[in-house]
Design goal:
Elements: E1 3-11, E2 14-22, E3 52-56, E4 68-69, E5 75-79, E6 83-90, E7 96-106, E8 109-115, E9 118-123, E10 128-132, E11 140-144, E12 154-160, E13 165-170, E14 180-186, E15 191-192, E16 198-200, H1 202-208, E17 223-228, E18 235-239, E19 244-248, E20 255-260, E21 269-274, E22 280-284, E23 291-296
Antiparallel strand pairs: 1-2, 2-20, 3-23, 4-5, 5-6, 6-7, 8-9, 9-10, 10-11, 12-13, 13-14, 14-15, 14-16, 17-18, 18-19, 19-20, 21-22, 22-23
Length: 302
């Protein structure tokens, strides 16, 4: 493996690595074409200092699995991964649940996103649900099967306004280093892109953020949440396995930043989202306590 230059950078106490030029893909079986140049950006968040931590007292959201902004400031959508029920969570009111929308019974639901007055939900087997007329208590539900399957373990759902599409992130097997793919689901045609819009190579992530003593060496980066930054259009992807955050260039898909998430702050990060000002929100399951939503302030100009 030949990395031309990897520079460690300490930002707010977080371990961040910026990759300037890499040729490791040529020597890694699970990795495709070489990267020649990656634009450099500092991470505009202090991942060790959330400005707000909201503990979700309800047992229904102990296993919170997704996060999405709504048109109402401070209110986010969330789902729990065992039932087709959407929760409206008000971060201005200590995480109070202001509304619930039940659209399906039991199931492994892993993503939620609001686009206009429609709500989309993702099941781990690749089915996309479109929920309309949810305001009156009798939601209408349309299902869109995709070529993706249960084995791909879909966990991330994010809205890409530039493409008018949903991004569907495949988690895959955390103990395998196969490519982690992100597909685009066109909201005009309701069709999934035949080829992935983005491809993440776990071995490349390992080169950027090496294992430490706390990491499970048999695990690899496995996408658990995806969101598009409202101001920079960068694509943010989190992984519960190994506790990692990646920032991808929207156009090329190249990794701009790779960072480690602190387990004591985010024990099981599952959902990621932004508000219109660019502040970052990450939801974490409650492994030994309550689920939580953490806010990290956007530092513009970084």
């Amino acid at each position: 493996m030949n990395l031309t230059q990897i520079l460690p950078l300490s930002i707010g106490g977080a371990c961040v690595l910026l990759l300037f030029s890499a040729q490791c893909r040529q020597q890694t079986p699970s990795v495709a074409a070489p990267v020649t140049s990656i634009p450099v950006v500092p991470l505009p968040y202090d991942l060790n200092a959330p400005s707000l931590t909201i503990s979700l007292a309800t047992e229904d959201l102990k296993e919170i699995s997704a996060l999405s902004p709504t048109s109402e400031p401070g209110v986010f959508l969330a789902v729990s991964d065992e039932r087709g029920e959407i929760f409206f969570v008000d971060t201005r009111k200590d995480g109070a649940i202001t509304k619930r929308v039940l659209f399906r019974g039991k199931g492994d639901f892993e993503g939620v996103e609001m686009v206009g007055d429609r709500i989309f939900c993702l099941k781990s087997n690749g089915i996309v649900f479109e929920i309309s007329n949810w305001q009156n208590g009798t939601p209408e539900v349309q299902e869109y099967p995709t070529m993706l399957q249960k084995e791909n373990d879909l966990e991330g759902l994010g809205y890409d306004p530039g493409r008018n599409a949903l991004l569907l992130a495949c988690k895959e097997n955390p103990e395998s280093d196969v490519d982690r793919r992100i597909f685009a689901f066109d909201l005009g045609t309701h069709q999934l892109s035949a080829a992935p819009m983005y491809t993440i190579h776990p071995q490349e992530v390992n080169a950027l953020v090496p294992y430490n003593d706390e990491d499970k060496k048999q695990h690899f980066f496995s996408s658990s949440g995806v969101a598009v930054h409202p101001l920079t259009q960068d694509v943010y992807v989190i992984s519960t396995a190994l506790k990692r955050l990646l920032v991808l260039d929207h156009g090329s898909g190249q990794i701009r930043v790779a960072a480690r998430l602190k387990k004591s702050i985010l024990p099981q990060p599952e959902g990621i989202s932004f508000d219109p000002e660019g502040n970052l929100y990450i939801s974490t399951e409650g492994k030994t306590s309550e689920g939580a939503i953490l806010k990290f302030l956007y530092r513009s100009g970084q």
